[in-house]
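Most newcomers find our protein records easier to grasp once they have seen one. Sequence and backbone structure share a record, each on its own labelled line. Nothing more is needed to start thinking about how sequence determines fold. As an example, a complete record with its sequence and its structure tokens follows.
=====
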Amino acid sequence: MSSDSTVKRLVLAYSGGLDTSCILVWLKDQGYKVVCYMANIGQDEDMEAARSKALSLGAEKVYIEDIREEFVTDFIFPAIQANVLYEDRYQLGTVMLLGIVGMT
């Protein structure tokens, strides 16, 4: 096995769903050590169950960060004030999540 300084390690934005669970296993198969990051923005999800799932699939560590306040203050409120819409019809809640997860 290679020394720890040559090990490929990355952070995966992990949801616990099928897509991120499959990519976690694939990354492990490619030789990566995977650290999972989960953002709590107030969604109705069992974060501890997702943590357990990631660890059982081979994640080295799982970090869960509570970013509800920042998400509302820095993304939701400004979007509502600006009347941000997708296709002139839908609020952009899901897309805004990508911005804050990338910042944390």
About this structure: The chain has four helices and five strands. Residues 75 and 96 are 6 Å apart (CA to CA).
